[in-house]
Amino acid sequence: MFGHIKKFFNPDENQPSRSSSKKSKKSGKKKPLTKDKLWEPVKFSREGKNEEDLRLFMLNTFLMTPHGQLDILKSLHQEMEKNDPTFYGHLASWYQQKGEVRDHKEIFTAHLLTSSHDMHREAGCALLEKFPPYQVSRIMDYCKISLKKFPKIARSAVVQYLKKREKDTEWFDSSVIRGRKVMKHLYASLRIKPSERAQKILFENSPPEGSSLYSLKLLAKEEDPAKQAKIVFDYKIPYPVAVGAIKKITPSLMISLINNMSCQELINNMSSLKKRGAFENPDIKAIIEEKLGDAGKDKRVSTMKARVAAKAAGLSQDLTDNLEQVALEKAKEKGTIKKPAAILVDKSGSMDVAIEVGKAVATMCSAIAESDLFVYAFDNMAFPVTAKGKDMAAWEKAFSVIKAGGSTSIGVALEIMRRKKERVEHIIIITDEDENASPLFVETYKKYCEDLFTYPAILIIKVGHAINKTEKELDGKGIEYATYNFKGDYYSLPNLIPLINQPTKLDLLIEIMSTPLPTREVLQVRG
Asked: By three-state DSSP, how is residue 427 classified?
């Protein structure tokens, strides 16, 4: 699919196999991986490798979420920016459009801003304009602290960013309400002179009458629920700020707060809204449902957060269905799978993680598949998994009878497909590659290709204590494949969609290289 990747991403050929892992677990000596150990710095060794290897290695990192630990990817981005600058610039622009994880968007922008290439710095300035203040602050801090530099063009981009917002008083006030410390940090760290109004709001705590900031003082003093609701609605005071300032949230006040929320804010606060009885009021519930109907079209809404919010809040079935529909619509925005595909999920001993990932991948792929999609779970036998719907609830039910246990034959599912003449052009395998039973995948793959006159692209999603057994066997037969290492963060899974909806590596690279670098609006500002 994308050319073969051998053992680049945190390789460890000396890792214990699944059988030895079980043994150590019984003896009580095995310790669970800590988060710190999981997120060790990612480094690329150039020995014996080429530009294609580096590109594929970078794509592999999209299946991890650093959770603010941008330093773990620093050396990799420096390596690519230095040795493959043209591709790096287009990849950064492509990820801003197609990617899901904000950490990756931030680190791309930071390295573009500090690049030695003019086209990179200009693109970085353009990308910076699209971030909210807290992310601009994180990008600036990463540049100054980790990269030890923040060039004049980057500072001018922040100046332009702030001055443009100062002219939009509604936006400026909203930013301060949500993140006063972040806004002060941007001005103070770069010694940017604020406008007279910004100075009074941020540094003198003297917001002008009629401003959103001034309204907070009015809200704190007001005791009439109707007047509180009017203040919240008129000045668009965000939910977290208002609930901290008001002792009792009345229905009218709740309606004002919900109307002020963005779709993502609504999704993020579903659990809090439930605790405050919002869903027990038919009128409030109707407003929430109407707003969720628009969430699928909102570019700021995260694909997986809607699904996670539904689970965390323990919502009613109708609200859960609404959030699930949002998640499916967001998945479709990432691309489609136009050709028939198969998902093969390892259910052998200790592969509970593969089953969980399989549910999520099957849900995403079924939502964007425009052709046949076959799903099988396997140990030393294959079990077809069929959902009566495309949402997570349907796939949860379909996988409910699938339990981890038994030996491992990755080839057995493909053998069943060969006999049933289920022809596909994509094969996605979710496994730790510890294949120890016949039929073996590589042998079965050759028979499958010969009998059904197809050469499916192979994508291996590695989970658990994965080894490289299947990869080595594919290498030995000259069969191309791609691997992605899943590190346990489900928010990163939507990043798979743009990587698998292209039939070949060449198609993916063409799409990336055809994504133009962004340009910024040129304003003359001083600060």
From this structure: strand
Give the relative orientation of helices 251-260 and 282-295 as an angle to the nearest 10 degrees: 10
Residue-wise burial string across 166-205, b where 16 or more C-beta atoms lie within 10 A, e elsewhere? beebeebbbbbbbbeebbbbbbeebebebeeebebbbeee
Minimal CA–CA distance to 18: which of 379, 377, 361? 379
- Does residue 80 have a pLDDT over 80? yes
Which residues are registered as beta bridge partners of 482?
Answer: 459
Q: Which residues contact 199 (CB under 8 A, 6 or more apart)?
A: none
Q: Exposed e or buried b for every residue in 367-380, given b needs 16+ CB within 10 A?
A: bbbeeebbbbbbbe
Please answer whether residues 110 and 139 qualify as being in contact, where contact means their C-beta atoms are separated by less than 8 angstroms: yes
Cβ neighbour number for residue 40 with a 10 Å cutoff: 9
HSE of 127 in the Cβ direction (CA atoms, 13 Å)?
30
Work out the number of other CB atoms within 10 angstroms of the CB of residue 352: 15
Both tokens of 205, joined, read 């705590």
Q: Sign of dihedral through CA atoms 61, 325, 351, 425?
A: negative
Interatomic CA distance for residues 301 and 297, integer angstroms: 8
Closest CA to 278 of 288, 290, 265, 264: 288
pLDDT digit string, tens, across residues 316-334: 667 677 766 776 777 777 7
Residue 366's alpha-carbon distances to 370, 372, 374, 389, in angstroms, are 8, 9, 9, 9
Residue 509 CA to residue 66 CA, distance in Å, equals: 24
Distance, in Å, from the CA atom of 418 to the CA atom of 452, rounded to the nearest integer, reads 7
Closest among 388, 466, 385 to 7, alpha carbons compared: 466
pLDDT at 454 over 50: yes
Q: DSSP class of residue 16?
A: P
Query: What was the pLDDT predicted at 14?
Result: 39
Q: Rounded mean pLDDT of 156-171?
A: 93
Residue corresponding to tokens 């692209």: 457
Radius of gyration of the chain (CA): 26
Task: Assess contact for 519 and 122: CB atoms under 8 A.
Answer: yes
